[in-house]
UniProtKB/TrEMBL annotation:
Protein name: Membrane domain of (PIN domain superfamily)
Stretches assigned to the TRAM domain: 287-352
Residue intervals passing through the bilayer: 7-24, 44-63, 84-106, 112-134
CDD domains assigned: PIN_YacL-like
Amino acid sequence: MNIIKMIVVASYAILGAALGVVIIPSVARDTGVLNAYPWLTNKYIISLIGIVLFFIIFGVFIPRVIKSLRKLEYFIMRHSAIEILFAAIGLIMGLLISVMISFILNLIGSSLFLHVLPIIITVFLSYLGFQFGLKKRDEMLMFLPEKMARSAHLNTYSAAPKIIDTSAVIDGRILDVIKCGFLDGEILIPQGVINELQIVADSTDSVKRDKGQHGLDILNQIHDASYPTRIIHPQKSYNDIDALLIKLAHKYKADVITTDFNLNKICHVQGVKVLNVNDLSEAVKPTVRQGDQLNLLLTKMGKEPGQGVGYLEDGTMVVIDDAKAYVGKHVDIEITSILQTSSGRIIFAKLI
């Protein structure tokens, strides 16, 4: 039994016992059964009866209460302490205003005003004050001294969590990015990604099996690294791993780390921010411009007649026209054009 469930069960027991002590003797006295059952005045007995009745009547709502408390816990943990503090200040302001309005209504003396409107006003102003304090914290910081306001503003920043995709795990480069400290925010590992890696690792195809085992090794290193990671378990099962990642990204307000070009496009349509490892790799590659001259080893023939192919140190493919005869040799080339895509970069060159 987890802590939240224990708290809910204990609260149910306390409420049931309290209501039993308060209500049962009154009901027994009004119905005239108190004389026949004098033990209904025993506080220990009626407390137990109250607990049992409370669980029988309201026990069906326990899962909903636990779910609501978990949502509240997630809401609080997702925001910084400064945000929660200002939200609490806004809530208190709303309650104080509602007390003053209730006092004014009390002077009017109408029973409708006394019993109905104060409750509505209190609930409305409490919610409004909480949202005001949470959303307008930056403007409220202006009332603080400059140094204190600057410190509080810096503490309100919280990085979005990152959900890692199967393709990014198998690719493996994300591990080096994490170790270098270029990521911020918690790394979330969906259980569906782990299951997909296990399926690939158990494949009869040797290539797929090697990729799956490599992915599991990378995943273990990410989880064991000195970086905040967490395995998340979706409440529903999804046959499509991409749909699962989109759903979790919306739920946790997270970014998605991937090398999958199709998932990149789906996330863009669904309004989810994507961190594409291929795009990062392209961004940090040495800059090669049209007209640059290089000395390159040609390693194989190209697809088109007469073409030769070589590779830069970062793995970028270079296609050279009329260089088939020089495969296996170093040649001097000049860059003529560069084709940039989300899946990689291809450079075209000519002999000089």
